[in-house]
Amino acid sequence: MIPTLSIIQAAHERIRPHVHRTPVLTCQTINRMSGAEIYFKCENFQKIGAFKARGGVNAVLSLSPTELKNGVTTHSSGNHAQAIAYAAGLVGAKAYIVMPRTAPQVKKDAVRGYGAEVIECEPTLEARESTVDEVIAKYGATMIHPFNDYRVIAGQATATKELIEDYGKFDTIMAPVGGGGLLSGTALAAHYLCPTAEVIAGEPEGAADAVLSFKSGRIEKAPYINTIADGLMTNLGDKTIEIIRLHVKDILLTSDPEIIAAMRLIWERMKIVIEPSCAVPFAALLRNKERSAGKKVGIILTGGNVDLGKLPF
C-alpha cells in the first residue's frame, strides 16, 4: 500500500540512529537572483553523501531475519548501491551490488568500502535486472529495488518531513526525478504535512521520460538519453508513477547547460559540493522564475557524490 503518514513516521524513527538530520541552508544572493525565498535541504551532507541512505536503511531495517539470512541485492550506478551496502553493514548482512561497468570508479570503490561485493554488468537496464536475477538464483538474496519499493519511498519521504518540521509551511517543494522514489516520498510527505504546497519536479531534457509518463499515465521511455545528470536516467516504476500522478503538480524540464550553471552557482555562492543531478530542480526553478516569484520554496539537494576529476566547469 502507498505509505501513510504513520508509516513515514515509523520509517523516520527506524532510521533516526543511522542517518543525519541534514541542515537546511539559504543564500541571500540566490534568493535575489531567483526572486524566491529558497530553503535548500542539504542531503549532500547525508550518510554516503546522498538522500538514498534514508530509503536504503529503512528498507534493510524493515526486513525480517529470514529475509536477511542470505543477504540483500540491488542494482544501481552509485548512490543507492552505497546506501544498501551501508545499510547491510548495519545489520551484518551480505550485500551483492550489481553496478554497470561504466559506473564511476569512485562509486564502485565506495560500495566495496562498505563491505559489499560489486558485480559488474553491461550499462543497460536489461543487463542490470538479469544480473540481479542471477544473484538471487545463486545466493537467495533479497532484492531491494532502487526506487519502486514502498519501504524505500517511505524512507525518502523523511527528508521532506524534516524540512517541513524545521521550517514550517512552503508554497512549493521541489525535487529531481529519475525513477521517482524521492519525488514520490517528497510528494507524500508534503501531502500529509503541508497539503497547500505544490510539489514540482525537475527533469533533464536529455532524460525526459517522467514528464511523458506524468501526462500519459503509462511508463514511457525518454526520446533520447544524453545528460550530465547521470543519476536521473531511469524510468518511473508502477508504484512511483501512481504516487506522482496523484500528488505532484508538474514536472519541469531543464537543459544540461542550465544544470551546469545551477550547479556552479551553488558551488560558488553556497560553498558546498553538489553533483549534477542534484542541481536539476534548482535549474528548473531558474528557467521558470515567474512560477516561483515571491514564493517560499523548499528544494531537496539530493547529493554530493561528484567525480572531482571530471567537473563540468
From TrEMBL:
Phylogenetic placement of the source organism: Bacteria, Pseudomonadati, Bacteroidota, Cytophagia, Cytophagales
Name listed for the protein in its UniProt record: Threonine dehydratase
Enzyme Commission designation: 4.3.1.19
CDD domains, per database record: Thr-dehyd
Superkingdom to which the source organism belongs: Bacteria
Domain Tryptophan synthase beta chain-like PALP: 15-303
Annotated family: Belongs to the serine/threonine dehydratase family.
Biological process, per Gene Ontology: D-serine biosynthetic process
Keywords of the record: Lyase, Pyridoxal phosphate
Cofactor(s) the protein requires to work: pyridoxal 5'-phosphate
Pfam families for the chain: PALP (PF00291)
GO terms, molecular function: ATP binding; L-serine ammonia-lyase activity; magnesium ion binding; pyridoxal phosphate binding; serine racemase activity; threonine deaminase activity; threonine racemase activity
Family matches, as InterPro entries: TrpB-like_PALP, TrpB-like_PALP_sf
